[in-house]
Amino acid sequence: MDVANTTAHKLLLTAERLFAEEGLDALSTRRISSEAGQRNNSALQYHFGSKDALLEALLEYRQGPINRRRMVLLETLQAQGRTAQLPALVEAMVLPYLELLAGAVEDSFYLSLVSQLHSQQRQALLLGAGHERGRSLRLLSEWLTRALAPLPEATCHLRLELASLTLVHTAALWAHQRRQAQQPWSRRQVAVRTGQLVDFLAGGLQAAGRERDDTFTGSNEQ
After folding, report:
1. Do 146 and 156 contact (CB within 8 A), yes or no?
2. CA–CA separation, 7 vs 44, rounded Å?
3. pTM
4. Which helix (H) or strand (E) holds 153?
5. Which of 13, 61, 20 is nearest to 38 (CA)?
6. Helices and strands of the chain, counted as H and E runs
């Protein structure tokens, strides 16, 4: 599917906005086509085939550039011998998302979509098993786990999950605020918020561990 096609691109961006504002499951393909100004209700099926295929195309469209940006950051850290420096790794996790806040208003809708995917436990779609778009996240996870040693592996995984949730939900909140203000963030605003979030996440990731069972899932705690 060629998103450079005007109709397909309009459908893609319309779906992204509606997904962000109203949820992934509440929308019909007819509604998306109508909001995109398409009189032919089968336009979406023609260009994408189905709503699931549309979501997949949207993830490729947005997550692809984010993956490439993060890979550049990771390759730079590797060249500098800094792959064990936790704050630098966390910055590589955070920055490609927050940079969207300095762009066009429509770019910020993706952050709300990512937040929804995590809330619905569908974040595996971001990794795109077998797809290039998830390579930077997979590599980053490996390096972060090594940087957190000697914490137990189960503790590392839980903390990385908490860090990811904090990142995506915070980014979605800021994206909403950015849209309400109807103006992009400056580079300085992005840098300041990135620095604060990196410090917060890195501090939580490397905090001293508690003496407790790392197999605990939380299902029995009152």
Report:
1. no
2. 9
3. 0.86
4. helix 153-181
5. 13
6. 10, 0
- Single-letter code of the amino acid located at 180: Q
CA 79 to chain centre: 25
Query: How many of the other CB atoms lie within 10 Å of CB of 168?
Result: 22
Report the amino acid identity of residue 96: P
Query: What does the chain come to in residues?
Result: 222
Distances (CA, A) of 183 to 64, 105, 138, 186: 25, 7, 33, 9
Instruction: Judge whether 159 and 167 are in contact, CB under 8 Å.
Output: no
Can you read off the two tokens belonging to residue 10?
A: 């309009």
Q: Is 153 exposed, middle or buried (0-12, 13-18, 19+ CB in 10 A)?
A: exposed
Instruction: For residues 11 and 14, give the distance between their C-alpha atoms in angstroms, rounded to a whole number.
Output: 5
d(CA 84, CA 76) in angstroms, rounded, equals: 13
pLDDT in tens, 161-181: 999 999 999 999 999 998 888
Q: Which tens digits make up the pLDDT trace of 21-64?
A: 888 887 788 888 888 888 777 788 888 888 889 999 999 999 99
Single-letter residue type at 174? W
* Domains in the chain with CATH codes: 59-205 (1.10.357)
Residues 6+ apart with CB under 8 A from 114: 97, 123, 126, 168, 171, 172
